[in-house]
Structure formats: C-alpha cells, structure tokens
Amino acid sequence: MRLIIWVGCGCFPEKVNVLLRFYHRALARCFWGTLFGSATLGWVLLIFYLSSLTPGEAPAQPGMIWQTSLEAQSQANMDTNVLAHLAMYGVLAMLLQLSLWSLNPGAVHRLRWALEIVAFAGAYGAVNELHQFFIPERTASGLDALVNLAGALGAAAAVRYLALYRESIRL
C-alpha cells in the first residue's frame, strides 16, 4: 500500500508515512463513530420500546416478589423506577458523549458539548414522558422527566471527568 500511495502521489517516503498515519486515524474515527452511533441509536430505540409497553406487558421487576405489603411494594416499585430512569438516561448520555468524542476528539475539552448532550438527553426524556401519556395504563410524570435529566447530567459529568483525568495522567 505504501508503494501505491508513494507512486500515486509522487511523494517522498516521509510524506507517505504521514499520509498513512492520517488515513489510519480517519479510519479508526469512522469505525468508532459508527460503532458508538449505532449503539446510541439502538439504546434510544430500546428506551422508546420499553416506554411503549403497558404495565401488563412490561417485564417483571426483580425484588417485587419479596415485598409483602402493598405499601412496601409501592415504595419498592418507585425506587426501582427511579433507578431505572437514572440508569437508562445515564447510559444514553454516555453513549452520546462517546459517539461525539470518537468523531471529534477535541470535543472532550469543550463543556458546551457536554451540556448540549445533557440537554438532548433531557429533552428526549421529556418527549418520552409525553409519549407515555398516550399509552393505555401509563402516565406522564414531570418527576420522571427530572430524574431522566439528573441521570444524564450525572453520567455526562462522570464520563467527562474520567476523560479529563485520563488525559492529565498521560501528560
């Protein structure tokens, strides 16, 4: 391949090495961008699918079997619901950040991009709650939308902190 590039562009061998390094980085960015972008799209579709299920269609939640009283079941269901929302939208924010960083590595240092990712994940959470209003036996909850936003904010902050910490160790 070096010979083809060297002959094709009439470059010296030093310039061929630079071109190959550039080509390798571009190919790696394309691969990771596609991988994380596809994972993000899949996660968004999974959230939409799970929020489209009625309570009878939804999978059983672990821990509910062990609860005895109706009040304890209600509290356990609320705790599990909050944790599920935090986790789902935290993973969404993480995947969005990884998708962006794989295509634009300089975006790690820009707080604006992290805030826009949190805003997007929070807006998707709010729209998803509005979508649940039209599902039988489901309700839209402003509290759930805020929990979605909190999950996205916490995960985006943690991932950004870890990325900046990793870069500071390299120096």
Give a structural overview:
The protein is mostly helical and 171 residues long. The chain contains 5 helices and no strands. The chain is elongated. It starts with a helix and ends with a helix. The N terminus is likely disordered.
Structural class of the helix and strand makeup? mainly alpha
Care to count the β-strands? Answer: 0
SSE string:
HHHHH
Task: Summarize the biggest pleated sheet.
Answer: none
Mean pLDDT: 79
Count of helix runs: 5
Instruction: Give the percentage of residues in beta strands.
Output: under 5%
Low-confidence runs? 1-11, 63-73
N-to-C span: 34 Å
The percentage helix is: over 70%
C-alpha Rg (nearest Å): 22 Å
| Overall morphology | elongated
Oligomer: single chain
